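Per reviewer request, we include the raw input and output of the structure prediction for the construct analysed in the revised manuscript.
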Amino acid sequence: MAPVQEKKLLGAAGAPDTLENTIEDEEGQNLWSSILSEVSTRSLSKLPSGKNILVFGEDGSGKTTIMAKLQGAEHNKNGRGLEFLYLIVHDEDRDDQTRCNVWILDGDLYHKGLLKFAASAESLTDTLAVFVADMSRPWTIMESIQKWASVLREHIDKLKILPEEMRRLEQELVKHFQEYVELEEASQGSPQRRGHPVSGTEDEEVVLPLGENVLTHNLGIPVLVVCTKCDAVSVLEKEHDYREEHFDFIQSHIRRFCLQYGAALIYTSVKEEKNLDLLYKYIVHKMYDFQFTTPALVVEKDAVFIPSGWDNEKKIAILHENFTTVKPEDAFEDFIVKPPVRKLVHDKEVAAEDEQVFLMKQQSLLAKQPATPTRANDSPARAPTGSPRPSSRSGPANVASVSPMTAVKKPDPNMKGAAANEGVLANFFNSLLSKKTGSPGSPSAGGVQSSAKKAGQKPVLTDVQAELDRMTRKPDSISANDTSPTENED
């Protein structure tokens, strides 16, 4: 009986120990449940992953450069097809971070089929579209963003999305556009997480209807238009004579496009690092619902920022007040004209011809040309001028050999500059000789003039060479007339 009593005593003594173990087990379970609940709460508040940014733009517009700048890396490589990089998004409140995928489509439309790897029907709800326009070439802006918007519209239509799901996405985009409010800088709440304003009255929840031209091209995803290279505004003013009117006209057309797609607009410059931080904050605001407090910026023409939901037709009409030479409804390409391209002549390469081929061509050309008998015809005419003085002293014979047109020498083509001076001198000496030959003491000279007049021939005074020939003949006749009286006396 003793062992049974001992067992009973042990059982009675161990009852308090069992109660303590039970309490400890309950406390341990509560601790684990609290830890699990905290972990589950944190997992719900963590930044979502799998967000995508689709970037469209022409080659050379700077789309890869600006995205690499947001990533914090220097872009020095040009990709082809579909480029990929990511942005590190950090939540300071919960000390959490995630990656946001960035897909950059090539500027060639040939690669548009690669969009199927970047945007699918499942990932479309977590996608932001960015259309990049080059401000250094403003004449390409409207054509470029309209082209890429149609490419994205075509791709979304090809996705197998249920009509109910697509309608839901479109209604959410309309709701975000209508519920836009400008948060003040001093608004309370998290500096990053978006603090939705607490509506104290029901009037604040009233949503205004959309305008006439607002969200007429609803893609179901948020859209952002980024104008790069806005530092080229000063270059456009100097080289292409752009004025305030041109920049207001460009901005008005872009803002009307943004109204149709419910898009935001921002002007940036990587060179001057302008609005880059603002661009990053707005992207994470649209993708991760971070708080965003920057209002619209429309004062500076090279640093414009229009958030989605802020703009309307009346605000755009303010730009039209400065128009003097253009109307708001004028076509974009009629006023923003592409400048003519200057063609460089030295760009064309000239190939030298083979030497033997060149010589053979010249030989064939010389063989085809007729013979030129000008030298042979001139030789008889020069014979009287170079011959010695004839033995006969009769004047008419000398005049007949000089005065006809056939005996006139052709002027030397090299003698152009001094031809006028020689003509003046020839006329001067000819007048002196004619006075001497007309004197009573020289009957032979008078006979020469009378015989020339009777023959109906006039000396050609307009030809310089003829005048010089006459000068060489006249002194000979004069000297002959002067020596004839002495001979008769002898």
